[in-house]
Design the sequence.
């Protein structure tokens, strides 16, 4: 989804953009497999506004995903709310001075864009068109939890036999887990 800056009127531009399952799958597993998979498509509500320094993009959506519980590997469905505000700055304005003519200055603006540090909520764009896809993909990844649990008190899998301890106990449970403590097994406490 590419938006042209010319489409943004005085009062801003509001869009409801579908996020297909294919788009979300790509976002969650393209660069690095996060282990999260989409359950259904979603809709991104996005508003773009022109400002003195560029364009402000505000977006919100809720993405339904599932992943494996970190302890027991059971499937865990999750609703991930996502909301973000990004300031899109034209590449040339990062140079901090505007005395240069904007025309025919592409080489210099590109160089400035690659050296200047941008703030976390700032993104550089060419000043004419905004490609929302990479911005949304990044925001989806940022919103993911580090790991998921099927429940806070998930007992996990037995480290020896692999039994899911939420479902049943196993025979290993009474044995000491740490081999350094194995000797204690023979000590009788009165
Ligand atoms: Zn679990
Ligand atoms: Zn076991």
Sequence:
């Amino acid at each position: 989804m590419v938006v042209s800056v010319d489409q943004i009127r005085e009062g801003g531009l509001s869009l409801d953009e579908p996020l297909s399952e294919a788009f979300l799958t790509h976002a969650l597993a393209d660069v690095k497999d996060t282990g999260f998979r989409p359950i259904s498509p979603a809709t991104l509500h996005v508003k773009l506004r022109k400002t003195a320094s560029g364009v402000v993009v505000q977006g919100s959506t809720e993405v339904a995903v599932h992943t494996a519980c970190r302890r027991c590997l059971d499937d865990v469905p999750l609703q991930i709310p996502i909301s973000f505000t990004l300031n899109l700055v034209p590449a040339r304005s990062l140079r901090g001075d505007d005395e240069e003519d904007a025309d025919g200055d592409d080489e210099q603006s590109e160089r400035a864009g690659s050296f200047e540090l941008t703030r976390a909520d700032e993104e550089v764009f060419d000043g004419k068109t905004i490609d929302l896809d990479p911005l949304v993909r990044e925001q989806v990844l940022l919103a993911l939890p580090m790991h998921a649990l099927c429940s806070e008190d998930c007992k996990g899998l037995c480290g020896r036999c692999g039994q899911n301890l939420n479902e049943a106990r196993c025979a290993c449970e009474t044995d000491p887990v740490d081999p350094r403590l194995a000797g204690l097994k023979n000590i009788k406490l009165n």
User: Anything to note?
Assistant: The beta strands are 2-4, 13-19, 37-38, 42-50, 55-68, 75-90, 122-125, 129-131. The longest helix spans residues 132-143. Helices lie at 21-29, 106-115, 132-143. The chain has a mean pLDDT of 84.
